[in-house]
Amino acid sequence: MSRPGRAMEEPRRRWNGFLTWFFAVIGIVVALAMMVGGFYVWRMWSTASDIERTNTLLPSGETDDPERPAADASVEGSFNYVLMGSDSRGDGDRGRSDVLMLAHVPPTRDKVYIVSFPRDMWVQIPGRGQAKINAAYAYGGEALATRTLESLVGVRMDHAAKINFDGFMGLTTQLGGVTVNNKHASSVGEYSWPKGEVTIQGEEALTYVRQRYGLPNGDLDRAERQRAVVKAILMKMLTLDVLANPVKFNEVMGQLGQYFTVDEGLTNQVIFSTATSMRVNS
């Protein structure tokens, strides 16, 4: 059984500020799009429109459902998000939720507070008893995973987003590979990565972010790799090779929306409003 104190503190420290950066990147892209022309504005909006929206990510209970934590009306303008990473394998298989995070966006929009929950953390799953936290996704999909997180932390989730890592890693090929700083030399099957900078794409990138065994800190190192690769993808998308090439920009943005699913309340307006309201000092 995982030790909740240590398990939660280390990911929180590592992830602190990353989602602030993530929203800021979206805001930068939106700002650049507005500066360089109507085509880019249209493509960004079109990509947001292509994102799948569903009512299955959040619990279906009404706002006054006594089994869910009450919404915090004392902090106007703040939002709580649940972020899930899925690697569904198809053939009716629901897949696994290998990434589960809570993100709190305060009204000031100058920070985003992150708590990351390791997949092997032992918790109480509503209606199912005690089990590893990632079992909630297998038992009842995204809604039960969200409900389990709400029960654990006593906070209601306003929005939810799921990313399919299998598809998202495919962007690494379209971008011609991404370079990350590999902190621990390791190998899996035909792939091996020395310590230091490595450039990865496609199936190799997916294998890299999935590795857990053979790393000194197991799940914690895997979570750090996932963050590094996602950041590298976003940074590569902001290079002139992509932004200054309308054809490449169109291709990349056309694929991006396919890899995200969000709740129905996370509309284009909410996404753009949040992105452009972020205040990042560094």
> Could you say which structural class the secondary elements and strand pairing correspond to?
alpha+beta
Sheet with the most strands, sense and barrel status: 6 strands, mixed
SS strand fraction:
15-25%
Shape: globular
Poorly predicted spans = none
What is the CATH-assigned architecture? 3-Layer(aba) Sandwich
Quaternary state of the chains: single chain
User: In which range does the helix fraction lie?
Assistant: 40-55%
What's the CATH H-level homologous superfamily?
LCP protein
Please state how the strands of the largest beta sheet are arranged side by side: 1-12-7-2-3-4
Q: In total, how many domains does the architecture comprise?
A: 1
Write down the Rg.
19 Å
Q: Span from first to last CA?
A: 38 Å
**Helix tally?**
10
CATH domain topology:
Aminopeptidase
Annotation, overall tally of beta strands? 12
Question: Could you name the CATH class?
Answer: Alpha Beta
